[in-house]
Amino acid sequence: MPNIKSAIKRVKVSRAKNLQNRMKKSELKTAIRRYREALAAKSDNAEALMRIAIKKLDQAAAKKLIHKNAASRKKSQLMKALKASV
C-alpha cells in the first residue's frame, strides 16, 4: 500500500474506474448475448435489441473500453447475423 497521499488517491481512483469499466463491459456483453438469443429464438424484437447492442458498442468505443475497430467489427457481425436470419 502506498504511503504518499497522491499515490493513495491514484489507487483509490483506479479501483473505482476499474469497477466502472468492468460494469460497462458486462452491460455490453449482456446486450450482445440478449440479441443473439433473440435471433436464435427468431423473436420479433431482435432488430430493437440489435440497435441497443450497437449503441452500447459505440459508447464503449467512445470511452475506449474497446478499440474502435473492434466495435466496428462487432457491429458488422451483428448486422450480418440479422440479415442471415431473415
Structural overview:
By secondary structure, the chain is an all-alpha fold. The chain has one domain (5-85): Ribosomal protein S20 (Methane Monooxygenase Hydroxylase, Chain G, domain 1), CATH 1.20.58. The protein has 3 helices and no strands. It has helices at 5-40, 46-62, 68-85. α1 (5-40) packs antiparallel against α2 (46-62), α1 runs parallel beside α3 and α2 runs antiparallel to α3.
Question: What's the arrangement of secondary structure elements?
Answer:
Layout: H1 5-40, H2 46-62, H3 68-85
Helix pairs in contact: 1-2, 1-3, 2-3
The tally of helices reads 3
Q: What is the first-to-last residue Cα distance?
A: 56 Å
Instruction: Please state the CA-atom Rg, rounded to the nearest Å.
Output: 17 Å
Biggest sheet features: none
What would CATH call the architecture? Up-down Bundle
Brief summary of the model shown:
The chain is mainly α and 86 residues long. The protein has a single domain, classed as Up-down Bundle (Methane Monooxygenase Hydroxylase, Chain G, domain 1), CATH 1.20.58.110.
Write a concise keyword list for the protein shown above:
mainly alpha, Methane Monooxygenase Hydroxylase, Chain G, domain 1, 3 helices
